[in-house]
Design goal:
The protein is an all-alpha fold and 295 residues long. 70% of the residues lie in helices and 0% in strands. The chain is built from 11 helices and no strands. Helix 4 packs antiparallel against helix 5 and helix 10 packs antiparallel against helix 11 (231-268). The N and C termini lie far apart (84 Å).
Length: 295
C-alpha cells in the first residue's frame, strides 16, 4: 500500500509541478508517508496482506507451511500484544518530545524555574511511574514474563516519582502567595497524570489500524484464491484482488490520516503548543440609538 501511495504521489508531483502550494505539500507528505508504510510493511512481513504467500501456495504449489515473505522484525497478527507495547512506547517518546519543545520555550524565555517546575518535574514523575510499572505483575501479565529490576533501579524509580511529585505539588501553583491554594493547585495538576495515561493509551489506535488493515487484506486474498489455480480461479483472483485492495487502501488511507492527525494535534501539540493570532470578531449589526431629552 505504501509503494502504491508513494508511486502515485511521485507521478502526480512530476506531472503537475505548478500545482497549488497546499496541494503540493500534501502530496509530498503522502509520498513520505508511503515510504514509511513500505518500510514498516517489510518489517512486519506484509505485502498486500499475505498476497505473496497466497499466490505461491495457490498457483505455484508451494506448501502452506513454507512462508515466502518473512517479517524482518515480527508479524503483528501473530503477536499483537508486542505491537501494542511498542505503540505505547512510541507514543510516550512522542509526548516526551512535545514536552521537550515546551521546555525549550521556557529556556528561550529565560524561565529556568518554570523549566524545572513544569518540565523536569513531569519527566521525573512519568519516568518514575513507568519504571515502577515495568517490574509489576500487571506488566508481566501483558508481556508474558516478569521483568526484575536491580535494587538500585527500584530505588531510583521511587526517588524520581516522589521527587517529581513534590516539585509539582509545591511549584505548579507558584504564582500564588497563599501556600494553601498553591498546594491545592499543585495537587490538581498531579491529577493531570490521568491525562498522560489517556494520551499514551491513545497511541493504541496505531495497533488497531495496523491489525485492521492487515486482517482485511488477508481476508481479501483468501476470498480471491477460493476458486483455486484454474483459469477461472486466476481471473477471479485478479478481479477480487484489484477491487478489494483498492477499497482497503482508500478506507484505511482515510482512517490513518484522521487518526494520526488526532495524535499530532491533540496529544502531541497539547504538550507545548500555545495558540496566538487575533481573536475572531464576526461581522454583526450594531444599532445606535440617539436619546433626546427635553430641558
Amino acid at each position: 500500500y505504501g509503494l502504491v501511495m508513494a508511486i502515485v504521489c511521485a507521478i502526480v508531483l512530476k506531472k503537475f509541478p505548478r500545482m497549488e502550494k497546499g496541494m503540493n505539500k500534501m502530496l509530498r507528505l503522502f509520498f513520505w508517508c508511503g515510504l514509511s508504510t513500505t518500510f514498516w510493511g517489510f518489517m512486519y512481513g506484509g505485502f498486500f496482506g499475505d498476497a505473496i504467500d497466497v499466490v505461491a501456495h495457490t498457483f505455484f504449489g508451494v506448501p502452506e507451511s513454507q512462508a515466502i515473505l518473512k517479517p524482518i522484525w515480527f508479524a503483528p497478527l501473530n503477536d499483537p500484544m508486542r505491537l501494542l507495547l511498542y505503540c505505547l512506547l512510541f507514543g510516550l517518546i512522542h509526548l516526551f518530545a512535545g514536552l521537550a519543545m515546551k521546555g525549550y520555550e521556557y529556556l528561550k524565555d529565560g524561565d529556568v524555574v518554570g523549566f524545572i517546575s513544569d518540565i523536569v518535574s513531569w519527566y521525573m514523575f512519568i519516568t518514575g511511574l513507568v519504571m515502577m510499572l515495568i517490574p509489576s505483575e500487571i506488566f508481566a501479565s501483558i508481556v508474558g514474563h516478569k521483568i526484575v529490576f536491580a535494587s538500585w533501579l527500584v530505588v531510583l524509580s521511587k526517588v524520581l516519582t516522589i521527587g517529581g511529585l513534590v516539585i509539582i505539588l509545591l511549584m505548579s501553583g507558584r504564582s500564588n502567595k497563599n501556600w494553601g491554594l498553591r498546594i491545592a493547585l499543585g495537587a490538581y495538576d498531579i491529577y493531570g497524570v490521568t491525562g498522560w495515561l489517556s494520551d499514551v493509551l491513545s497511541y493504541s489506535r496505531l495497533l488497531a489500524l495496523g491489525l485492521a488493515t492487515g486482517v482485511i487484506a488477508s481476508v481479501i486474498n483468501m476470498m480471491a484464491s477460493m476458486k483455486g489455480n484454474g483459469v477461472v480461479g486466476v481471473i477471479l483472483f485478479i478481479i477480487i484482488f484489484l477491487v478489494g485492495h483498492t477499497l482497503n487502501i482508500l478506507i484505511n488511507l482515510l482512517g490513518a490520516y484522521v487518526h494520526t492527525n488526532r495524535l499530532q494535534y491533540v496529544e502531541f501539540f497539547g504538550k507545548f503548543y500555545d495558540g496566538g493570532g487575533k481573536p475572531f470578531t464576526p461581522f454583526k449589526v450594531v444599532n445606535r440609538y440617539v436619546e433626546i431629552k427635553e430641558d
